[in-house]
């Protein structure tokens, strides 16, 4: 670049360039003496500059001299050529860095190619519930919220995230939601690879990936340009050129929910200049609030539970949600995972024949665990020896698989290792810590080098000028699983020799979860799952540790109190379940007697604005079926996603009358819910299904509910797409003598 720029100069301009280069006052520092430059040609001058200043500094010097001798167009051209040249190198480095991923099943040091393993995920526009919508109205403005309100839960692609909306307005800040293990980080890494391959987001010149768990480790002050430089795979970017057009820059902030910062700094403490040295908390707060690089774009991945915290520091303009794999994509994942077509077909057939297990496989990490275990068992015994029905069961299955692979010598010491691992996990959860430094791992005496790689990943992290060894659980959800186990394991005296950590008082955990609704959610869900007697016995046998169900009553009391709002208590209204997470917790337990007792104080369910995937529907239906005093069921503005969202919201075949073909009813998106209502035995009075994007395909199963629930007097079906055919099938149920409906909206 430097040589081309020099060769393009006239003889007079080239002489001016050399004279200025030899000037003492140009930088006030070292300069090349005129005696060495006087007779130098373009090649000689270039060599002198590179030897004297180094590559990047030589280009900086050339640009400065061009501007000094009034050749501003040449300075601009060299600046642009340099930036384009760097951009090519940066994309090449990104392709190399993001094309491979570590596979936990591979031998040490082996990787798999991301493109050969990655399977497309279902992503939909995300509704906001009423509470979130009120918050966004205050934060963003009514116009943007109305746009979001109109968005349907139809399937979109990654490339649609920054596309113009219905009014041609382009979002600058997009939040990509997803439950634990649903593929947020994998999607973020695939975006980086595809952008560097010119497949997505071609409107951005630069995309920088910032992983929040590594941001937690940056304790010293830094600037925005320092964070950008860390993203650049070891090269030095032309920062001035990169930041000259911030509207062409996208930051991917992966794992917002893992950040330990509070983000409640006053505006006077924030910064607006990319070179300002501040704490990482202030740098990110300034970026989120639009004070720093306000024209740049943000794509933030997070678990839904962190939305409230995110809303305090960010004006989000579009929400999307990763739901997991469709049926076709689950099959594709199995085909990619198994090298043998026969093994892939056998494994998929087994899982497909178990409806609950197959439904759970819509979550990629569950799919990965099932495939990992089946791969081992197909080579040994020819099939999966057990079929878990819950997320907790899946994680126990994987832990059992890991423990089976240990030698007898390591197996004897494993109970102690697992207890210490649970202490480390719980301590990390309380401190919102995902990466542990080597000294922390050693303090917990977790130094069995042969066993440790089974449970922890090792990372090398660049901090300042030193390289630090850090460890994490193989996935954050595994840390949450072990943290839950911490509250149930019997203390056999080892705790005395360990660093001071959280107490085993589960009330403290539940109280903190109740206040934050964030970091402890999956840990609490696992607590319920680990109380299941069958799974508890199985785990005791595999781990060699005693597990005590001493927290059952605490969980029962917490669950019942968590749904009682202050207003409802003041007005003496009947309490209702307001969070789907309650149903997830009860489903994990798989104890119908406990569920009925837990739900006894409640008279209804009220959920808003949720994209209910197939597993969510299974979970909700389980609670509805065991709800002894259910009087009202209100799921307004919720989308019942069937397989791929297009299947549930697009045109669907008209269903047969409800009595004629029960098998046809299974094609209805609300089949599971209606089936639960038919079998619940409760005295349901009000059923609200307004704005749920229901079509004629749902009306047959809905019609069957009417005579099965003679106590039902109100049915709300407004703002759906039933059509004349759907109303005809509904009328079949209305005509039934057992139907006592009084109000149909």
From TrEMBL:
<keyword id="KW-0449">Lipoprotein</keyword>
<keyword id="KW-0395">Inflammatory response</keyword>
<dbReference type="GO" id="GO:0006954">
    <property type="term" value="P:inflammatory response"/>
</dbReference>
<keyword id="KW-0333">Golgi apparatus</keyword>
<dbReference type="InterPro" id="IPR032675">
    <property type="entry name" value="LRR_dom_sf"/>
</dbReference>
<dbReference type="GO" id="GO:0005524">
    <property type="term" value="F:ATP binding"/>
</dbReference>
<keyword id="KW-0963">Cytoplasm</keyword>
<dbReference type="InterPro" id="IPR041267">
    <property type="entry name" value="NLRP_HD2"/>
</dbReference>
<dbReference type="GO" id="GO:0005783">
    <property type="term" value="C:endoplasmic reticulum"/>
</dbReference>
<dbReference type="GO" id="GO:0045087">
    <property type="term" value="P:innate immune response"/>
</dbReference>
<keyword id="KW-0805">Transcription regulation</keyword>
<keyword id="KW-0832">Ubl conjugation</keyword>
<keyword id="KW-0472">Membrane</keyword>
<dbReference type="InterPro" id="IPR011029">
    <property type="entry name" value="DEATH-like_dom_sf"/>
</dbReference>
<dbReference type="Pfam" id="PF17776">
    <property type="entry name" value="NLRC4_HD2"/>
</dbReference>
<dbReference type="InterPro" id="IPR029495">
    <property type="entry name" value="NACHT-assoc"/>
</dbReference>
<keyword id="KW-0547">Nucleotide-binding</keyword>
<keyword id="KW-0399">Innate immunity</keyword>
<keyword id="KW-0539">Nucleus</keyword>
<dbReference type="GO" id="GO:0005634">
    <property type="term" value="C:nucleus"/>
</dbReference>
<dbReference type="InterPro" id="IPR050637">
    <property type="entry name" value="NLRP_innate_immun_reg"/>
</dbReference>
<keyword id="KW-0597">Phosphoprotein</keyword>
<keyword id="KW-0391">Immunity</keyword>
<dbReference type="InterPro" id="IPR007111">
    <property type="entry name" value="NACHT_NTPase"/>
</dbReference>
<feature type="domain" description="NACHT">
    <location>
        <begin position="172"/>
        <end position="376"/>
    </location>
</feature>
<keyword id="KW-1271">Inflammasome</keyword>
<keyword id="KW-0677">Repeat</keyword>
<dbReference type="InterPro" id="IPR041075">
    <property type="entry name" value="NOD1/2_WH"/>
</dbReference>
<keyword id="KW-0067">ATP-binding</keyword>
<dbReference type="GO" id="GO:0061702">
    <property type="term" value="C:canonical inflammasome complex"/>
</dbReference>
<dbReference type="Pfam" id="PF17779">
    <property type="entry name" value="WHD_NOD2"/>
</dbReference>
<dbReference type="GO" id="GO:0016787">
    <property type="term" value="F:hydrolase activity"/>
</dbReference>
<keyword id="KW-0564">Palmitate</keyword>
<keyword id="KW-0804">Transcription</keyword>
<dbReference type="GO" id="GO:0005576">
    <property type="term" value="C:extracellular region"/>
</dbReference>
<dbReference type="Pfam" id="PF02758">
    <property type="entry name" value="PYRIN"/>
</dbReference>
<keyword id="KW-0256">Endoplasmic reticulum</keyword>
<feature type="domain" description="Pyrin">
    <location>
        <begin position="1"/>
        <end position="84"/>
    </location>
</feature>
<dbReference type="InterPro" id="IPR027417">
    <property type="entry name" value="P-loop_NTPase"/>
</dbReference>
<dbReference type="Pfam" id="PF05729">
    <property type="entry name" value="NACHT"/>
</dbReference>
<dbReference type="InterPro" id="IPR004020">
    <property type="entry name" value="DAPIN"/>
</dbReference>
<keyword id="KW-0378">Hydrolase</keyword>
């Amino acid at each position: 670049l430097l040589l081309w720029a020099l060769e393009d100069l006239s003889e007079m301009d080239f002489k001016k360039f050399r004279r200025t280069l030899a000037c003492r006052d140009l930088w006030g520092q070292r300069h090349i003496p005129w005696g060495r430059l006087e007779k130098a040609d373009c090649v000689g001058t270039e060599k002198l500059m590179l030897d004297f200043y180094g590559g990047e500094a030589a280009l900086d010097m050339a640009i400065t001299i061009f501007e000094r001798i009034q050749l501003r167009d040449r300075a601009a051209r060299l600046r642009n050529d340099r930036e384009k040249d760097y951009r090519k190198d940066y994309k090449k480095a990104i392709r190399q860095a993001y094309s491979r991923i570590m596979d936990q099943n591979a031998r040490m040091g082996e990787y798999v190619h991301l493109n050969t393993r990655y399977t497309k995920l279902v992503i939909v526009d995300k509704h906001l519930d009423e509470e979130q919508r009120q918050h966004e109205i205050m934060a963003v403005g009514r116009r943007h919220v109305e746009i979001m309100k109109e968005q349907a839960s139809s399937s979109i692609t990654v490339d649609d995230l920054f596309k113009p909306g219905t009014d041609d307005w382009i979002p600058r800040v997009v939040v990509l939601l997803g439950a634990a293990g649903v593929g947020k980080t994998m999607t973020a890494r695939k975006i980086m690879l595809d952008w560097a391959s010119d497949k997505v987001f071609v409107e951005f010149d630069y995309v920088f990936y910032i992983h929040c768990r590594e941001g937690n480790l940056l304790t010293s002050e830094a600037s925005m340009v320092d964070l950008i430089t860390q993203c650049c795979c070891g090269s030095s970017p032309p920062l001035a050129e990169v930041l000259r057009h911030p509207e062409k820059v996208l930051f991917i902030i992966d794992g917002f929910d893992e950040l330990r910062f509070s983000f409640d700094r006053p505006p006077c403490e924030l910064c607006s200049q990319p070179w300002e040295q501040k704490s990482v908390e202030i740098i990110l707060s300034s970026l989120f609030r639009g004070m720093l690089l306000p024209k740049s774009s943000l794509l933030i991945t997070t678990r839904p539970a962190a939305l409230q915290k995110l809303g305090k520091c960010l004006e989000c303009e579009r929400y999307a949600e990763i739901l997991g794999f469709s049926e076709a994509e689950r099959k594709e994942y199995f085909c990619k995972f198994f090298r043998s077509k026969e093994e892939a077909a056998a494994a998929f057939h087994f899982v497909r024949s178990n409806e609950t297990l197959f439904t759970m496989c819509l979550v990629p990490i569950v799919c990965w665990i099932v495939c990992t275990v089946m791969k081992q068992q197909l080579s040994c015994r020819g099939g999966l020896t057990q079929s878990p029905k819950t997320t907790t069961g899946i994680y126990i299955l994987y832990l059992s698989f890991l423990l089976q692979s240990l030698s007898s010598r390591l197996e004897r010491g494993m109970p102690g290792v697992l207890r210490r691992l649970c202490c480390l996990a719980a301590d990390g959860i309380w401190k919102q810590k995902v990466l542990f430094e080597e000294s922390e791992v050693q303090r917990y005496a977790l130094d069995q080098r042969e066993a440790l790689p089974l449970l922890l990943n090792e990372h090398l992290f660049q901090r300042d000028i030193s390289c630090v060894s850090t460890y994490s659980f193989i996935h954050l959800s595994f840390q949450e699983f072990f943290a839950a186990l911490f509250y149930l394991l019997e203390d056999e005296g080892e705790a005395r020799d360990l660093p001071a950590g959280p107490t085993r008082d589960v009330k403290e955990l539940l109280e903190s979860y109740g206040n934050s609704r964030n970091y402890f959610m999956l840990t609490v869900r696992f607590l319920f799952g680990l109380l299941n007697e069958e799974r508890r016995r199985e785990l005791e046998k595999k781990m060699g540790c005693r597990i005590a169900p001493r927290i059952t009553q605490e969980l029962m009391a917490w669950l019942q109190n968590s749904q009682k709002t202050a207003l409802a208590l003041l007005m003496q209204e009947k309490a209702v379940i307001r969070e789907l997470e309650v149903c997830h917790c009860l489903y994990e337990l798989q104890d119908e007697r406990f569920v009925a007792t837990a739900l006894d104080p409640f008279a209804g369910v009220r959920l808003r604005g949720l994209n209910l995937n197939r597993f969510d529907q299974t979970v909700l239906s389980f609670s509805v079926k065991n709800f002894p005093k259910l009087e009202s069921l209100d799921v307004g503005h919720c989308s019942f996603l069937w397989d791929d969202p297009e299947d549930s919201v697009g045109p669907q075949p008209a269903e047969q009358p409800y009595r004629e073909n029960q098998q046809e009813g299974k094609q209805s998106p609300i089949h599971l819910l209606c089936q639960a209502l038919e079998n619940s035995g409760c005295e349901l009075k009000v059923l609200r299904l307004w704005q749920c994007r229901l079509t004629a395909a749902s009306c047959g199963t809905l019609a069957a509910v009417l005579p099965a629930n003679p106590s039902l007097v109100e049915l709300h079906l407004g703002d759906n797409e039933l059509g004349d055919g759907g109303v005809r099938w509904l009328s079949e149920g209305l005509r039934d003598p057992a139907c006592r409906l009084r109000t149909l909206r």
